[in-house]
Write a structure and sequence with these properties.
- With 355 residues, the protein is mostly helical.
- Helix content is 70%, strand content 1%.
- Helix 14 (306-315) packs antiparallel against helix 16 (329-352).
């Protein structure tokens, strides 16, 4: 009995480390891209018409909260429409998108693509129905850029830089050696994207892709400025996000393991899909990264069906809505209400067509 318990604990910790490592590497890569682009991509959203909705949806589809923060800031400055804001919020799953890609990369790519298409349609419809008399403009703060970012600037091998390099390097070594290898997710459809006889969405190819991401991060960790290492990689990703990701992942896995051992949760969920859709959509209204992880893990374990996860993804947008709540509670409530209704409707449609 003790041997089985220790084995289960080891599997939980291994999975938590794997997910946390992959999420951290991807978040660092996004930080690198954001600094390298110097905000040029986000500034392109200032165009008008359908292009605005499409670009905001694509920003929302980018894992993490940075794209969402950019769209919320532009909305509060009167640059983008309410429909563009809705498109971002539907497409975005916050930091949990990183976890989805780490735990079930094949399914996540299709879910993100589907949500992006849905978000664009919802954004167009919202702008067609809702036409405010004047442009929304709540605040005067602008995006801050730093000349010290990127490769230029002071460069020293501080303990923070060494810690980032060693941490990413050790994780990549463990990944390549198969020390953190996961078994295929039970109960989840094995999607394929074939090129000849090669499945480009197989776990092996995904590991190669993550390894390339990691090498790119290592390059930036070696050559980037001290400011980029200190502010973007260390304080933002390592100190702010990494502990929460690890604790949320570990805690969720422990809760699910206990539920699986003491309750027939699979049977209950299969008989109460409608309730689970409503619960997932309601929890997604909370402007916080973390609660959504429960539904991600339940889906990856084959416990909840796709409609529940999709409802959660649509309603959830991580921390992106927090600045909106601070600037305009009316806009926050309106946007979240629209998201909730679309989340429930999409979940019900998927449930009734048997997905």
């Amino acid at each position: 009995m003790l041997e089985g318990m220790f084995k289960e604990i080891a599997e939980i910790l291994s999975t938590a480390i794997l997910v946390t490592g992959l999420v951290t590497v991807m978040m660092m890569l996004i930080e690198c891209f954001n600094v390298w682009s110097k905000g040029r991509f986000t500034r392109a959203v200032s165009g008008s018409g359908p292009l605005q909705v499409i670009i905001c949806a694509l920003l929302g589809a980018v894992p993490g909260c940075m794209g969402g923060f950019a769209v919320v800031s532009m909305y509060t400055h009167g640059i983008v429409s309410f429909g563009a804001l809705i498109a971002m919020m539907i497409a975005s799953s916050g930091d949990e998108a990183f976890v989805m890609l780490a735990m079930m990369p094949r399914q996540s790519l299709f879910i993100i693509a589907g949500l992006t298409v849905l978000s664009i349609a919802a954004g167009f419809l919202t702008d067609a129905v809702y036409k405010p008399a004047k442009s929304v403009h709540f605040c005067d703060n602008e995006f801050a850029t730093h000349s010290e970012d990127g490769i230029k600037g002071s460069h020293h091998f501080s303990w923070k830089r060494v810690a980032v390099i060693l941490g990413v390097g050790l994780f990549l070594l463990s990944l390549c050696m198969g020390l953190l290898e996961e078994e295929a997710e039970p109960g989840v459809a094995q999607a394929e994207f074939l090129l000849g006889n090669i499945n480009l969405l197989s776990e092996d190819w995904m590991n190669v892709m993550f390894a390339v991401f990691g090498v790119s991060v290592l390059f930036m960790a070696v050559f980037a400025s001290d400011h980029f290492i200190d502010e973007h990689l260390w304080h933002h990703v390592v100190c702010e996000h990494l502990p929460k990701i690890f604790l949320w992942t570990t805690g969720t896995l422990v809760v699910i393991a206990l539920l699986m051992n003491f309750f027939d949760i699979s049977s209950w969920v299969s008989n109460n899909v409608l309730i689970m859709i409503l619960v997932a959509a309601a929890i997604g209204v909370i402007p916080e990264s973390g609660p959504h992880l429960l539904f991600v893990t339940l889906f990856a374990s084959g416990i909840v069906p796709l409609p529940v996860l999709v409802a959660s993804c649509i309603s959830q947008d991580g921390h992106s809505a927090l600045p909106l709540l601070a600037e305009s509670r009316k806009s926050f409530i309106a946007a979240k209400a629209v998201n909730f209704l679309i989340a429930v409707a999409a979940g019900l449609v998927l449930m009734y067509i048997g997905l």
